[in-house]
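Re: export button greyed out
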Amino acid sequence: MEEKDIIAALSALAQDSRLRVFRLLVTAGSAGLPAGQIAEELAITPNTLSFHLSHLKNAGLVVVRRDGRSLIYSAEYGRMRAVLGYLTENCCSRDPCCS
Amino acid sequence: MEEKDIIAALSALAQDSRLRVFRLLVTAGSAGLPAGQIAEELAITPNTLSFHLSHLKNAGLVVVRRDGRSLIYSAEYGRMRAVLGYLTENCCSRDPCCS
DNA sequence: CGTATAATTCTATTATTCTCGAAATATGGA
DNA sequence: TCCATATTTCGAGAATAATAGAATTATACG
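Workaround output, generated via the alternate export path:
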């Protein structure tokens, strides 16, 4: 995982709406949620949500599959773990810390 | 740690110069580094660096102390750990993951 | 095929962030 | 006190991000 991927993931999560979307998807588990339901639960207009989802998708933090007319988004836990791994390794000291 | 603090920390780190500054400070340990030396090592103009350092400071990720004419910045590991803790707890599934 | 539903892409507007030159503040030493 | 050093704050310009209305694509079903 390169630094630019880390920055992409961090900026994807460093925004109120997107962090809430991601947290919601985390609670939804691997079943995921259709875009419309995310929009409704979080009171975000569909086009704005779509903008945020594409950010999360580009950062590799969510994946999407189609089910009929719905697009189901779900959290990509592996990616998130990789980001946390990077931060733990590179941003958390060789002093007495973080283990 | 509240969500707005997490967002502050994430956006502080979600920027190339600031991530490099923070990583440099992490390697410097508790001794820290004076602003001028950070600017020199990373080839960032002093005023721009100051802008970035204040971001990191507002996010609680670095602290500063004065030593003569120099201001010594150092990484706040505890804060970083708290951020990682939050992300692990809230953004990392109750599925088989992240442990 | 025609219509309805689900979501995205397009376009424009506003807001925020980044960068850097210039000016200001704080400290130390002659 | 006067000057040099270290760093920050101010002010302005350029770049990037967020929001939402309108138009478009994709699927389902009568």
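Chain B touches chain A at residues 3, 6-7, 10-11, 13-16, 19, 22-23, 26-27, 29-30, 75, 77-78, 80-81, 84, 87-88, 90-95, 97-98 (CB under 8 Å). The button fix ships in the next patch.
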